[in-house]
User: Which sequence fits this backbone?
């Protein structure tokens, strides 16, 4: 069951700075149409640290934006980053009381991503979408690679491993 944004537990949940952070305020503002991505990025993730507030935000982000006509890159990138960092040894485990709604949100993400792939996502958004798709299908390592590598690193890897410029046409 989705944690209500009015639930009194929100102000007690820790964010990325390991202090209590009430993410419900920003999520309510998002529901009202405000751009709160900067605040969510700042408070839910910090140098590899995430907390239970970060995990609780994921189902809400999917609920709020999942049926929107389109989503921004931030939607996929933040959700993917929270999922990646959730697996770091020093971050808290996903609490039992949140596990079902968190997994339900992740189960919805491939269909949401498929809708956004029908448009013309820019390359950065495309990487974030692919990262989410990989993670949603259980491939955390591929998702991490897609999320973390920039285009110059991909070019270097392709050149080193596949001899790209020798074997493939320009523009491919």
Assistant:
């Amino acid at each position: 069951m989705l944690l209500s944004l009015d639930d009194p537990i929100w102000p007690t949940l820790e964010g990325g700075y390991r202090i209590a952070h009430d993410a419900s305020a920003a999520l309510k503002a998002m529901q009202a149409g405000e751009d709160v991505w900067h605040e969510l990025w700042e408070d839910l993730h910090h140098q590899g640290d995430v907390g239970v507030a970060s995990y609780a935000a994921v189902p809400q982000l999917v609920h709020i934006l999942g049926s929107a006509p389109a989503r921004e890159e931030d939607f996929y990138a933040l959700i993917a980053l929270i999922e990646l960092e959730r697996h770091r040894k020093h971050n808290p485990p996903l609490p039992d009381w949140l596990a079902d709604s968190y997994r339900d949100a992740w189960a919805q993400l491939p269909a949401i991503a498929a809708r956004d792939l029908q448009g013309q996502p820019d390359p950065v958004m495309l990487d974030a979408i692919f990262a989410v798709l990989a993670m949603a299908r259980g491939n955390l390592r591929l998702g991490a690679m897609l999320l973390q590598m920039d285009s110059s690193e991909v070019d270097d890897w392709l050149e080193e491993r596949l001899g790209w410029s020798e074997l493939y046409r320009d523009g491919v």
